[in-house]
Design a protein that fits this description.
Helix 2 packs antiparallel against helix 12. This protein has 14 helices and eleven strands. Helix 7 links the parallel strand 6 and strand 7. The protein folds into two domains: about 190 residues, Bacterial extracellular solute-binding protein, family 7 (D-Maltodextrin-Binding Protein, domain 2); about 120 residues, 3-Layer(aba) Sandwich (D-Maltodextrin-Binding Protein, domain 2). The chain starts with a helix and ends with a helix. It is globular and about 55 Å long. With about 325 residues, it is an alpha/beta fold. The structure holds beta-D-glucopyranuronic acid. Beta-D-glucopyranuronic acid binds next to strand 3.
Length: about 325
C-alpha cells in the first residue's frame, strides 16, 4: 500500500510539475529543489547557482528554486530528478545509498577523521568516482556541500555512552547504513522523511533523531528534543545533482556554465556553513538545551560490527578513504 501511495504521489507530482513547465518544454527553466528553507546554506548555494547561470546565459536559462521540500521528501525528489522533472537537486548523500550502494560509504560512522579528511576525499579521486557512478542511475554530480557532523538528540536523557541509547526510538534517514548504525548502538531505528520528524517527536512516536546543529535548529527539533549529545557519529556530505536526462539535452556551452556555477556555489556554501554551525550551537545553548560531549571512543568501538557487515561490499573503498592523509 505504502509503495502504491508513494508511486501515485510521484506520478501526480510529475504531472503537476510538468504542467507548470509546459510552455518551456525545451527546459529554458530549470527547477532546483532543496528540503531546507530559503535561508539554509544549501538553499543559498542553489540561489548562487541561479544567479550565475542567469547572468552568464544572459537570462536564456532560468533557474527556479523550490525550497522547504515543496517538491517532496528527498527520496521522492531523487526519483523526480531521475525522471528529468526536477533538474537540479540538493540532497544528503545518505538517501543516495539506496540508488547507488557505494554512496553508503559516506554514511559509515567515523569514516572521516575530521572535516579536513572529509574534504580531501570529496575533492579527490574517490569523491569524483562516486559522483560519476550516479550517471548510471540518471544523475550528474555537480558538487558536494558541507553538512558538518551529525549527533543524537532526544527528549529523554543525555547520551554519554552507547548504552544510554537503549530503548530509544530514533528517526533515521532512509538508508540501510543508518538503520544498522542506530540499531547497532542499541536504539531502535525508525526510518522517516525529514519533514515528519518534528511532529513525530512532539507526539512521542519517536524519542529523537540525529543531525547537525543547523538542522537541529532550523527544523525546530531542538524545541521538542532538548538533549543534544555531540558524539558526531557521521559526517554525511550534501550533494548537488543534475538530471542526466536534461543534461544530455543541454548545449555544451550551458553545461559548462552550470558546472562552473556549481563549483563557485560549493565554496560559497562551505563559507556559509561555518557561520551557520556556530550560530546553531549558540541558539541551542541560549534556549537552555542540555548539551553534552561524550567520549567518542566507546561509540567508535560499538560501531565496528557495521564495518564487518559492509566489508564485503565497501571494504575496498573504506581502505582507500582511510588511506587518504
Ligand atoms: C540534513 C540534510 C538534509 C536531510 C536531513 C535528514 O541537510 O538534506 O534531509 O539532514 O536528516 O542534515 O533527512
Amino acid at each position: 500500500m505504502k509503495f502504491i501511495e508513494a508511486t501515485i504521489y510521484v506520478l501526480l507530482l510529475a504531472l503537476a510539475v510538468s504542467f507548470s513547465l509546459a510552455p518551456q518544454v525545451d527546459k529554458r527553466v530549470l527547477i532546483a529543489s532543496d528540503d531546507h528553507n530559503a535561508e539554509y546554506p544549501t538553499t543559498k548555494g542553489l540561489y548562487k547557482i541561479k544567479e550565475i547561470v542567469e547572468r552568464e546565459t544572459g537570462g536564456a536559462l532560468k533557474v527556479v528554486v523550490r525550497h522547504s521540500a515543496q517538491l517532496g521528501s528527498e527520496k521522492e525528489t531523487i526519483e523526480l530528478t531521475q525522471m528529468g522533472i526536477i533538474d537540479i537537486n540538493r540532497v544528503s548523500c545518505s538517501p543516495m545509498a539506496s540508488f547507488s550502494p557505494n554512496m553508503g560509504v559516506f554514511s559509515l560512522p567515523y569514516i572521516f577523521r575530521d572535516s579536513g579528511h572529509e574534504w580531501k576525499v570529496l575533492d579527490g579521486a574517490i569523491g569524483r568516482e562516486l559522483g560519476r557512478e550516479l550517471e548510471r542511475v540518471g544523475m550528474v554530480t555537480l558538487a558536494y556541500y558541507d553538512s558538518g557532523a551529525r549527533s543524537f538528540y532526544n527528549k529523554r536523557r543525555p547520551i554519554n555512552k552507547p548504552s544510554d541509547l537503549e530503548g530509544l526510538k530514533i528517526r533515521v534517514q532512509k538508508n540501510p547504513v543508518m538503520i544498522d548504525l542506530v540499531n547497532g548502538l542499541g536504539a531502535s531505528a525508525t526510518p522517516m522523511a525529514f519533514e515528519e520528524v518534528y511532529s513525530a517527536i512532539q507526539t512521542g512516536v519517536i524519542d529523537g533523531a540525529e543531525n547537525n546543529p543547523p538542522s537541529y535548529v532550523t527544523t525546530g527539533h531542538y524545541e521538542v528534543a532538548k538533549y543534544y549529545s555531540l558524539d558526531e557519529h557521521t559526517r554525511i556530505p550534501e550533494i548537488v545533482l543534475f538530471s542526466k536526462k536534461v543534461w544530455d539535452r543541454l548545449p555544451e556551452s550551458e553545461r559548462e556554465i552550470v558546472a562552473r556555477a556549481a563549483r563557485v556555489s560549493q565554496d560559497y556554501q562551505i563559507e556559509l556553513w561555518k557561520a551557520k554551525e556556530e550560530a546553531g550551537m549558540k541558539a541551542v545553548r541560549e534556549a537552555g538545551n542540555k548539551v553534552n560531549v561524550p567520549d567518542k571512543q566507546p561509540f567508535i568501538d560499538a560501531v565496528q560490527p557495521i564495518y564487518d557487515k559492509y566489508a564485503a561490499d565497501l571494504g575496498g573503498l573504506i581502505k582507500r578513504i582511510q588511506a587518504v592523509k
